[in-house]
Specification:
9 helices; 176 residues; mainly alpha; 0% strand; globular
């Protein structure tokens, strides 16, 4: 097992750019933050208030999905207790949540993408899926997660999104 963890750390270090100033680092930092739960909570509340009537149900569904997914991710994190990679970027994340496995950002992003694919227009689902992978990569590039953290987060988010869609088969009509 230690060999796999060492390989994971080496691969993660290869894509890390957190300590290298420049436009790519700035882009990765923005993408890494774009998966923050507070950002999505605020955005979904605003979208619910000011967005089109027929998308309000999707905003509620995504908000509930964020809460449930976060609770499950935190349960796993505090069970596994894998420490984040060492680094300076993301001090807030390191302080509020020192555990890295699985990535909550990756789980949240993929869960939202699966919901968007299942109930939203095709363009929205595709956009959200691309965004989910970019957020996940950015979390590794900025040094707050290992590659295995985001892969596990992506898998967990896909499962959570699928479960929502499976247990609420009438979501499409509920969204209209």
């Amino acid at each position: 097992m230690q060999e796999l963890l060492d390989l994971d750390a080496r691969l993660s270090e290869r894509v890390r750019i957190a300590e290298r100033p420049g436009p790519l680092r700035t882009l990765m930092a923005l993408l890494a933050h774009s998966g923050d739960s507070w950002f999505w909570a605020l955005g979904l509340v605003l979208f619910y208030i000011f967005g089109p009537q027929h998308w309000r149900g999707l905003a509620v569904l995504m908000g509930l999905g964020i809460v449930v997914t976060a609770a499950l991710v935190m349960l796993v994190k505090f069970t596994v207790r894998r420490r984040r990679p060492e680094g300076e970027w993301g001090k807030f994340y390191r302080w509020t949540d020192p555990h890295s496995f699985p990535s909550g950002h990756a789980a949240r992003a993929m869960m939202l993408a699966v919901l968007a694919i299942g109930v939203g227009p095709a363009w929205f689902g595709i956009l959200m899926l691309v965004w989910a992978f970019l957020v996940s990569f950015a979390r590794v590039a900025m040094g707050v997660h290992y590659l295995s953290d985001v892969l596990a987060g992506l898998a967990a988010g896909a499962i959570m999104g699928w479960l929502y869609l499976a247990f609420w088969p009438d979501l499409q009509s509920w969204m209209l």
